[in-house]
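Hey L., structure's done. Input below.
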Amino acid sequence: MKACFLVDRKLEENFDIETDFEFFAHKYGPFDKHVYTALEELEAAGKVEIVPDEELSTNDGDKHKLTPKGNQKAAESYAHLPRRQQDLVEWVKYKQSKRPLGALINYVYSNYPSYTTESEIA
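Output:
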């Protein structure tokens, strides 16, 4: 959710590109139920698979992983992006979503406080 939020915000802030997502302040920060819908559609299309938390030895919840078909589509899409947009993808993927969940939440909360007004996280 937080990685999708960052992509959404950075696309608009840096490239004036709007997505179909409409994030709002919720219990755990920025939220849009359509992120789950998009994941379900990608899973149904065989591009994403869910890896349950118990297989990962973390407490961060289930993770989503690209399938070989998803990797191929992602690589094709990435190759057609302008370099600055590729940099954004890399920043979210390697600098943000690979962080421990607490660090990612801290980054989002620090940089987007208007999306934390309903948060139950201290």
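The chain has a mean pLDDT of 90. The longest helix spans residues 2-15.

-- N.
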